[in-house]
Design a protein that fits this description.
The structure is a single chain. The protein has a domain of 40 residues. It starts with 20 loop residues before the first helix and ends in a 14-residue tail after the last helix. It is mainly α. 51% of the residues lie in helices and 0% in strands. It has two helices and no strands.
């Protein structure tokens, strides 16, 4: 029995959510995306996903368009 430790006590009350603005923004985007998934038909979502994947492949291949957004490291 050497090396055994006592079990750790677990917190009974839930921890409050962190007040990080970036986390809040991500949660807002996920809520909006969930709403879109519930609203649009599956066929439309699959088409959007395929077009997005195709466009990302074009951007990575160097085929940029004037309306493209440039993501910068913060």
């Amino acid at each position: 029995m050497a090396g055994r430790t006592k079990p750790k006590r677990r917190r009974v009350t839930p921890r409050p959510a962190p007040r990080d603005p970036q986390l809040h923004a991500v949660r807002a985007v996920l809520e909006d995306y969930a709403m879109v998934l519930e609203t649009l038909p599956a066929r439309s979502m699959v088409r959007c996903h395929r077009l997005t994947e195709q466009r990302i492949a074009e951007i990575l291949a160097g085929k940029r368009q004037p309306h493209d957004v440039e993501v910068m490291d913060l």
